[in-house]
Amino acid sequence: MKKSSGKSLKKQELEIKLNKMELNISEILTEISNQNAEIEFNPDDPFSKEIPSKVGLQYFLGRILRYSQIEKSTLISILIYIDRMCITSGIILNPHNIHRLILGCLILAIKYNEDIYFKNEYYAKVGGISVKEMNNLELTSFELIDHNLFISDDIYEKYLAYITHYNDEQG
Fold this sequence. Notes:
Layout: H1 6-14, H2 20-35, H3 57-68, H4 72-89, H5 98-113, H6 120-127, H7 131-144, H8 153-164, H9 166-170
């Protein structure tokens, strides 16, 4: 029987430090989600959960980054895919759906951008959901962005500049 190391894992996770770009993405998503906090649970939104996650986005994103070790371009792709999905489907980012939107777009971005990646089971565990739910999020995300994972250099550079200078514009 394997000994549980839950306390040490929790302690390690609290020590996650995000670099400026990662922190800016976390703040961008948190700000948008908080602006829409009054939105009620929507059963028609495939990413929405009746009870919003109590896990803060900075911690959630930090956990994903720590355990997935994705490239910067993949992280930026997640934000681009979330935007695309919201535009094509009318989904509005809010506390009920933000965590699952990130996970759905994470899987797409990793599989499109990374040479080596883990099975969905691994990312489901990192995200705190079942493999079945992870698979559904991936499929739904792919459908809602019209199966278009390509990101032009121009779009990528615009997002990169916005993310990089996000707090400069806020201050």
